[in-house]
Amino acid sequence: MLNQWLFIGILAIVTYLSRLLGVELMAGRKMSSALRLYFNYVPVAIITALIVKQIFIPTSGRLVLSFPVLISCLIAALAVRLTRHFLPSVVIGIVTGLLVRYFL
Amino acid sequence: MEHRKSTVKTACIEALPLAIAIAAYGLSYGVMAVQAGFSLLTAAAMSVLVFSGSAQLVAVAMAAGGAGMISILLTVMLLNLRNLLYGAALAEGLAPAGKWKALLAFGISDEPFVLSSSRFKKFGPDPVYFSIVTGMFYIAWILAGYFGALMGSQLDPQQWGLDLAFPVTFAALLVPGLKGKPVIATALAAAVIAISMDYFAPGNQLTIITTGLLAPLVGLWLHGRQKHA
């Protein structure tokens, strides 16, 4: 329990510091366009890595592909592409994953 | 006074659609936080104290996957680097707030940046606009996160497929942003790096942070090549 509070506290501090530093220290400075692009690509890379980690699950020392997770991700991706609505796409993805899990 | 009233009204109207979107992410965050072992109280406290969709979603997903505190914090710090950009871009527009600027800085993230930077460009510095927008997002984020956590704690995760909420949420977050070859290349490179690292060292703690550091370089390289082509 204490660990969770400690975790939240540190998370809050590092996140706030990044915001404050931007406003106080980086203001008026020219940042190279390469650095800007790099910072903007970082979330795409991290989110992709998180998805990969969920699709390929380490089981007794090797990676195993989870079909329910893979298919639910593909369906959610397709749904959000077509509908542009986040929450319905998440629900569609989860329901599809559940169906795959029970029927395959 | 009349001017301020119209600013408040405009801010509310412009923020509302995004506040609804933020509430949807918040709902997902709450469900995921409970899956990751956070209580209703700590899940809500994280929203109140951190107030960052990307940082919180990534943190709870990594915690659920068994990642240690250090690797989560490093990843979040990497993710937070873009706040430096946002802060730098918004600083002038928030300057009239004086010493309150440090408080307003708490609200800096993707969505307030998008709305406020375009507002400042058109109408000049406007801390009131920024405060209203981020205030609405803050309330939406906390309430939705709490309801998500409440929902997550009531349902049987396996039966309702709540464990699938993690990958599916991230897939739905990722896809709308995949515009332009450099971004797509970054995502593909990230997939290759992450799969390779986990293939050779399954379940290791460094995959996410290493991917986050390296994959953007591929996007950057492609961007440079496109420009010179």
Give a description of the structure.
The complex is a heterodimer of chains A (about 100) and B (about 230). By secondary structure, chain A is mainly α. Chain A has a domain at about 1-30. Chain A is built from four helices and two strands; from the N terminus they run ααββαα. Chain A has a two-stranded antiparallel ribbon. In chain A, a hairpin with a 2-residue loop joins strand 1 and strand 2. The model of chain A has no long low-confidence stretch (mean pLDDT about 90). With about 230 residues, chain B is mostly helical. Chain B folds into two domains: about 1-165, no CATH class; about 180-229, no CATH class. The mean pLDDT of chain B is about 95. The chains are: A mainly alpha (about 100), B mainly alpha (about 230). Chains A and B meet through helix 1, helix 2, helix 3 and helix 4 of A and helix 1, helix 2, helix 3, helix 4 and helix 5 of B.
In short:
With 104 residues, chain A is mainly alpha-helical. Chain A has helices spanning 2-24, 33-55, 67-83, 86-103, and strands at residues 56-59, 62-65.
Topology:
The complex is a heterodimer of chains A (about 100) and B (about 230).
Chain A: H1 2-24, H2 33-55, E1 56-59, E2 62-65, H3 67-83, H4 86-103
Antiparallel strand pairs in A: 1-2
Helix pairs in contact in A: 3-4
Chain B: H1 2-35, H2 40-49, H3 53-64, H4 69-94, H5 101-104, H6 110-123, H7 127-154, H8 157-160, H9 165-174, H10 181-200, H11 207-228
Helix pairs in contact in B: 1-3, 1-7, 2-7, 3-4, 4-6, 4-11, 6-7, 10-11
How much of the sequence lies in strands of chain A comes to 5-15%
Approximately how much beta-strand content do the residues of chain B carry?
A: under 5%
Cα shape of chain A = elongated
Number of domains of chain B: 2
What is the β-strand count of chain A?
A: 2
As a percent range, the share of helical residues of chain A equals: over 70%
Q: What's the count of strands of chain B?
A: 0
Question: How much is the radius of gyration of chain B in Å?
Answer: 19 Å
Order of helices and strands of chain A: HHEEHH
Structural class, judged by helices and strands of chain B?
Answer: mainly alpha
* Alpha plus pi helix count of chain A: 4
Principal-axes shape call of chain B: globular
Q: How would a textbook summarize the main sheet of chain A?
A: 2 strands, antiparallel
The quaternary organization reads as heterodimer
Give the ordered list of helices and strands of chain B. Answer: HHHHHHHHHHH
Radius of gyration of chain A: 19 Å
Point out poorly predicted stretches of chain A. Answer: none
Mean pLDDT reading of chain A? 92
Major protein interface: A-B, 72 and 97 residues
